[in-house]
Amino acid sequence: MRIHELSPAEGSREKRKRIGRGQGSGHGGTACRGHKGQRSRSGGGPRPGFEGGQMPLQRRLPKRGFTNIFKKQYDIINVRDLNRFEANANLGTEDLKKAGLVKKAKNGVKLLGNGDVFHPLFVKVQKVSKTAREKIEAAGGKVEII
Question: How far, in whole angstroms, is CA 82 from its chain's centroid?
Answer without folding.
Answer: 25
